[in-house]
Amino acid sequence: MDITVKKGEITTIIGPNGSGKSTLLKALTRLLRCSMGCVYLNQEDLYNIDSKKLAKCIGVLPQRHCAPPDFKVRDLVGYGRVPYQKWYEHNTEEDEKIIEWALKATGTWALRDKSIQECSGGESQRVWIATVLAQQPEILFLDEPTTYLDIAHQQETMKLVKRLNHEAGIGVVMVLHDLSHALEISDRIIVLKNGCKYGEGRPQDIITPKMMREVYDVDCDVVQIPGRKKPLIMFKEIS
């Protein structure tokens, strides 16, 4: 496949289970080495870039993450500043300002003195996003950020992603299963099928009844509702 991820945009990778979405995300972020081909960041081979320099460009939140249960939220978010520090250095005044910004940007400032174990699922997800934000990356990579969250927390996470993109100018690349979220929030969508790129483009151009049949083996209509910018997916009635 040949794809391009751009700063300042929200790009969502979709496709059926096992189509290669998380594998692609790992390849793009150097968590998994490609057996063939190359990944370039600003025309430079990803594997030629110093780790600290790379961490200042991209932030990655995998599907599964953990921290010692007694970790305070503020301390966890502080680890996002490691790429900017030497091993013997402590947080500077500038670091503290950025940690505070990351906490406030994700709505987790009130949780700063709690342990990560005391946070709910939605709170915990926002704290982890704050940790990656503290890196001040140009592009944020999120692997299924709404997994295991209820509907309210899914909406909350999607609103946060959109706000970070619009207000802070951070590019976002996500793997999502929820196609309604992908339609609503994305600037561009990449569709995978059997480990290959099926299509890439604007949500309204890519998510079509034809794509749904050929990729997901599902019959549906994609309907434009007056007053809405993005269409809605209407699945056939289950009989």
Automatic annotation (TrEMBL):
<keyword id="KW-0067">ATP-binding</keyword>
<keyword id="KW-0406">Ion transport</keyword>
<dbReference type="InterPro" id="IPR003593">
    <property type="entry name" value="AAA+_ATPase"/>
</dbReference>
<keyword id="KW-0813">Transport</keyword>
<dbReference type="InterPro" id="IPR027417">
    <property type="entry name" value="P-loop_NTPase"/>
</dbReference>
<feature type="domain" description="ABC transporter">
    <location>
        <begin position="1"/>
        <end position="219"/>
    </location>
</feature>
<keyword id="KW-1003">Cell membrane</keyword>
<dbReference type="Pfam" id="PF00005">
    <property type="entry name" value="ABC_tran"/>
</dbReference>
<protein>
    <submittedName>
        <fullName>ATP-binding cassette domain-containing protein</fullName>
    </submittedName>
</protein>
<keyword id="KW-0472">Membrane</keyword>
<dbReference type="GO" id="GO:0005524">
    <property type="term" value="F:ATP binding"/>
</dbReference>
<keyword id="KW-0547">Nucleotide-binding</keyword>
<dbReference type="InterPro" id="IPR003439">
    <property type="entry name" value="ABC_transporter-like_ATP-bd"/>
</dbReference>
<keyword id="KW-0410">Iron transport</keyword>
<dbReference type="GO" id="GO:0006826">
    <property type="term" value="P:iron ion transport"/>
</dbReference>
<dbReference type="GO" id="GO:0005886">
    <property type="term" value="C:plasma membrane"/>
</dbReference>
<dbReference type="InterPro" id="IPR051535">
    <property type="entry name" value="Siderophore_ABC-ATPase"/>
</dbReference>
<keyword id="KW-0408">Iron</keyword>
<dbReference type="InterPro" id="IPR017871">
    <property type="entry name" value="ABC_transporter-like_CS"/>
</dbReference>
<dbReference type="GO" id="GO:0016887">
    <property type="term" value="F:ATP hydrolysis activity"/>
</dbReference>
